[in-house]
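#dry-run=false #mode=assembly
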Amino acid sequence: MHEVTLIEGVMNTVRASALEHDIVRITRVKLVIGKLSMALPDSLQFAFQVLGEQDDLFRGAQLEIEEQEIQCRCSDCQQEFVVDKDYRFVCNFCNGVNVEIIRGRELYIDHYEGDKN
Amino acid sequence: MVQIALGSNILGANELLARKNRKLFEQDGTLVINLMSSPGAGKTTILERSLEGITGKLKIGVIEGDLYTDQDAQRIGKKGVEVVQINTEGTCHLDAGMVNKALERLPASDYQLVFIENVGNLVCPAEFDLGEDFRVVVFSVAEGNDKLLKYPLIFREARVILLNKIDLLAYTDFSLEKFQEDLAQINPSAIVFLVSGRTGEGVKEWTEWLLEEVSKKQNRF
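#status=ok
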């Protein structure tokens, strides 16, 4: 995927927010990434490290990534279940295939931490 | 130390622009299709074949997305439709902003049907809403059965799958049964057409279905 672009987007959003809050140094950023989003945590970490080193605001900051399982709800029996690595969207309880994805596509910045001057 | 909660979507800017595009497409009831596949699956050939059957029946615009060159736009332009080429110059997918820009040269209100041919890639384009009505994935038997489960998101989100190069079926290890079995578990509501860009087989069934969708949208707006 385009992990470098995603991290650039993250840094821009955090930078804009930091400016508003008079934060001059970012120490930690936490992302939530759904397993269906196809963004690779290792590549995100790598991009964050490389881009962060060249950036006064982000230098030395840690990136925390919470991976969100793919969670579905069966429209037939209303049960919720997790879809594992084989990506078969079939209800674990009734084998129904009318399945709604309720989690797993997340790609968002949960929060960040930083220091004020 | 201060902690600031954000909860902001990393692709939020794209989603905002996609909504803007969708609104534009609704104004005049233009049906917009996001055509996706891996490189070489036959998107452009299928598009050419599809256009042959429906140009003259309605006003069609095409947005072509490629990393480099305008080869596809030249091919499609010969089919008598308006076409705009976007060169992403390295970016692996189209985003809503690029489409929004292309619409300055190809005003959606002039057309009843707009095809957006995405960059050949089964991964990234799936993440980017362009404001389309629905997604069509061209998948060819030469790619092998395993791709469905290897790239689940793009197949999960497709409304239509055009199973292409069906004329090569006898020369590959592709199993139609296995394909249907896997698809029933990834995306049971997907509509599948078996087509061949080379022989034209199955294209008529697909374009007839598509024309119905165009009139459904026209009637809604």
